[in-house]
Amino acid sequence: MSGYFDAIAPLSYDPDADGLAFRAYDPDEMVMGKRMADQLRFAVAFWHSFGWEGGDPFGGQTFERPWFPANTMELAEMRANAAFDFFKVLRAPFFCFHDHDVRPEGASLGESRDRLERIADIFETRMAETGTGLLWGTANLFTNRRFMAGAATNPDPEVFAYCAATVKACLDVTHRLNGENYVLWGGREGYETLLNTDLGAELDHMGRFLSLVVEYKHKIGFKGAILIEPKPQEPTKHQYDYDVATVFGFLQRYGLENEVKLNIEQGHAILAGHSFEHELALANALGVFGSIDMNRNDYQSGWDTDQFPNNVPEVALAYYEILKGGGFTTGGTNFDSKLRRQSLDAEDLVAAHAGAFDVCARGLKAAAKMLEDDRLEAARRARYAGWNEPWAKAMLEKGATLEGIAAEAEAKGLDPQPVSGRQERLENLVNRYV
Question: What would the pLDDT profile of 273-325 be if each residue is shown by its tens digit?
Fold first, then answer.
């Protein structure tokens, strides 16, 4: 309808194609009892694909799109239609959006809400036409200067109230469009210096805000999951949602660990000093895994570069943890990725996503084969086999005491000797699959 992608035919699975096609991603291929499309649940990020103009900290716009700068409703509507034309080319199962991405801000909260609803009218029509669903919606509470000192953690209560109204409007639209999740990313929920920060108050305010969102979710009957996306830094010096462990501790403190799950991004995991698979494994162990953003950082840069995934071994280890935990339920694989500033053409946006789909498909299949062959899990079980002994289990039971365990260790004459962890052999084993 926008005309921008008219020259590009919808992509199909064709391993031998010379042009734009999926070479590994076959949506109907069965992987561990599900269609590949249902295992991966791909989503396109509206903001990077249709809102980002190609700027970086040292240079301005490089992309020329007919809907830029999308500062009127007419341009925003053109952009919305262009996005769905793209989803149709890509056969994308889902998309994700922020309110700020899809409509220009109005002169008042009410006008901004009405504009969002007007764009949602287009989304609703085009979703029915294309079959593309909404993986999640969210509110942008970090770009406008009013959020420079935070959103829910802002020292000004008027900002807290403004954010509550904004999130309510976004959650209403997400619910209306049958979104499967709602995400809160605290881009500026943190601080630059403790010299002007009441850290305890800000955490309490953020905890109360999240509780209000959860209460409203139940009030309106929204069945999707509420997700928090961890990130350690950037734009603030220290963000309260640093990593999976930090967010889980926050949720426990405010009694929300059974209400809120996590949207985990590969690039954010690296910024926190972790591997992606570590964050996924920990979220599954703690029962808070929800969804992922599949993008990567440049390992030579110390900031969030949001590049499309291209490393099959890394992706395979991520999907290994996801599949081991039971796979996605309401979550999916969102490409929170953006083109490089020199990739100017419509075909570049299609090629980037098609290649990312293929990388993830290869990683998924490798992960599934590793799980089905059971060699990694067998090695893990063997390493911990001693804990199956009755005396070992007894140490973990409620009646066990430190002095009792100490006495038994002495009576047994224990002198444990180290056993090889066989790391290199396991790494070699993984490389046979990827």
Answer: 999 999 999 999 999 999 999 999 888 877 789 999 999 999 999 999 999 99
CA 174 centroid distance within chain: 17
269 Rama sector, left if φ>0, alpha if ψ -120 to 50, beta otherwise: alpha
Is 274 catalytic? The answer is no
**38 assigned to active site:** no
Helix (H, G, I), strand (E, B) or coil at 333: strand
Is 121 annotated among the ligand-binding residues?
A: no
- 265 in a labelled binding site: yes
Q: Is 304 annotated as a binding residue?
A: yes
pLDDT tens readout for residues 49-82: 999 999 988 999 999 999 999 999 999 999 999 9
- Candidate list 98, 175, 205, 353, residue with the active-site label: 98
What the chain holds in terms of domains, given with CATH numbers, is 30-373 (3.20.20.150), 386-433 (no CATH)
List 85, 99, 101, 241, catalytic entry: 101
| pTM for the whole structure | 0.96
